[in-house]
Amino acid sequence: MKGIILAGGNGTRLHPITLGVSKQLLPVYDKPMIYYPLSVLMLAGITDIQIIADPDGLPGFQRLLGDGAALGITLTYAEQDKPRGLADAFIVGAEHIGDDSVALILGDNLFHGPGFGEILRTSARDVDGCVLFGYPVSDPERYGVGEVDASGRLVRLEEKPAVSRSDLAITGLYFYDNDVVDIARRLNPSERGELEITDVNRTYLERGKAECVQLGRGFVWLDTGTHNALNEAGQYVQILFNRQGVRIGCVEEIAWRMGYIDRDTCHRLGLALSKSPYGQYLMEITSNPRYEEAS
């Protein structure tokens, strides 16, 4: 499975702080926002990932992450000259996807929960259709909402319904088989001139090939695209670290735990950042036996 992080857009909900920097490079507590979606794909076992961003933003991501070799993965970059909807990512990234299945994650989404890595890896195996990830919310009218049957198959999708039959919001993480490229190419743009991800998902729903994995009690899903949400996400990450010593979205640690790099390489990555608490954390977990088991 290939991975795509969609990190485009103008970040208008975060103006003026995004007038001079890409939204996905803003800090969420101790690391850039893009570390969080990157960590999700890495936990899913995906090591060939493309970052799609606007022309002004791409150099920043390239400076930050390079070609991914330091993390034992492959990172490439593609330009989206203007926002054309989420489904446009499959057209921009068609060459990257090739004949494989693909995972798309939005660059401003944060996920955390028990056993999440295993859920991701199980869901990524032999995708036949699409696998969406649903999360219960108190305000479903703000989201695309899914209704599922007892087996987890989607039976209905609604986009920001005035009155919803379900509280299950469809999150910004999607797994698709290779048909998604052709489906995206055949879409008609919406009234906003965009290729809507909900239309892609409805195509799979009509084929009877849409599954929804429900992230329930104990999971956290945050969209960090507003000032309040950005602050809340930072506070969540900070509180969890202060209470449990866990750094969510630490891509260097995940690379080590997943076997993409070895312990010594992870330690050296920490040493290069040793003046920061983040770097000191990497050095600590790779030298202290009590961190031997993955947190």
TrEMBL record:
This is Glucose-1-phosphate thymidylyltransferase. Pfam families: NTP_transferase. One of its GO terms (biological process) is hexose metabolic process. SUPFAM superfamilies: Nucleotide-diphospho-sugar transferases. The lineage of its organism: Bacteria, Bacillati, Actinomycetota, Actinomycetes, Kitasatosporales. It comes from the Bacteria. Its cofactor is Mg(2+). GO terms for molecular function: glucose-1-phosphate thymidylyltransferase activity; metal ion binding. Catalyzes the formation of dTDP-glucose, from dTTP and glucose 1-phosphate, as well as its pyrophosphorolysis. InterPro entries: G1P_thy_trans_s, NTP_transferase_dom, Nucleotide-diphossugar_trans. Keywords: Magnesium, Metal-binding, Nucleotidyltransferase, Transferase. Belongs to the glucose-1-phosphate thymidylyltransferase family. It catalyses: dTTP + alpha-D-glucose 1-phosphate + H(+) = dTDP-alpha-D-glucose + diphosphate. Residues 2-235 form the Nucleotidyl transferase domain. Its EC number is 2.7.7.24.
